[in-house]
Structure to design on (215 residues):
């Protein structure tokens, strides 16, 4: 009888141990599965974010490079590209074009003497040289550049504008105009037009306007 009771208790202990083991194994399996699922989700999210950032950076970089290169080398004209005019291919001249005795204006023309069509769109760089040998950069006027495409023989024009000083006490004594065509680095030196009115104020009061076709 005593032997029978001991066997029964032993059987109950084994059953309880097996039950606890089964429960513990189930919990471990659930935790491992959840961790694996979380890691996979995190990895996928990270990969997706990396690809998105890389794609954005690539697109931005490509676009920026294209625009920069286009601005430096070509001008877009009606959907096509034309190489910017080189200084060596332009015949440049300056004349007094004042409409009255109070408004000063100097027209500067650039004739394409090259063999191909080119673009002169934009602002030319202009410095005025004074008789004391100082050079003064001229500021841009408030105007939007117009598309200026020159076939061989065509001319572009831009102007300098200022107020004329009729007092005879002007402090400016211009001798030359240094012109650098749009998107170029080489300049030419022109004589200040004879008969042009005296500049009222300082050279900082003179403004240069963008090119346009002479037609």
């Amino acid at each position: 009888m005593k032997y029978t009771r001991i066997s029964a208790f032993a059987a109950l202990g084994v059953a309880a141990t097996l039950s606890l083991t089964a429960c513990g194994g189930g919990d471990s399996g659930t935790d491992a599965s959840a961790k694996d699922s979380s890691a996979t989700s995190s990895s996928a999210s990270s990969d997706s974010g990396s690809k998105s950032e890389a794609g954005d950076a690539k697109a931005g970089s490509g676009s920026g490079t294209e625009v920069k290169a286009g601005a430096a080398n070509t001008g877009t004209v009606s959907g096509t590209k034309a190489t910017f005019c080189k200084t060596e291919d332009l015949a440049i001249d300056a004349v007094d074009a004042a409409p009255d005795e109070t408004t000063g204006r100097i027209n500067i023309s650039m004739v394409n003497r090259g063999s191909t069509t080119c673009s002169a769109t934009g602002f030319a760089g202009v410095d005025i040289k004074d008789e004391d040998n100082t050079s003064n950069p001229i500021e841009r006027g408030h105007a939007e550049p117009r598309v200026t495409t020159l076939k061989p023989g065509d001319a572009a024009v831009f102007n300098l504008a200022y107020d004329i000083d009729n007092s005879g006490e002007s402090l400016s004594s211009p001798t030359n105009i240094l012109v650098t065509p749009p998107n170029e680095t080489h300049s030419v030196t022109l004589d200040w037009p004879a008969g042009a009115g005296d500049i009222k104020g300082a050279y900082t009061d003179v403004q240069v306007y963008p090119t346009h076709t002479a037609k």
Summary: Residues 1-74, 76-80 have pLDDT under 50 and may be disordered. The longest strand covers residues 103-112. Helices lie at 2-73. The first helix runs from residue 2 to 73.
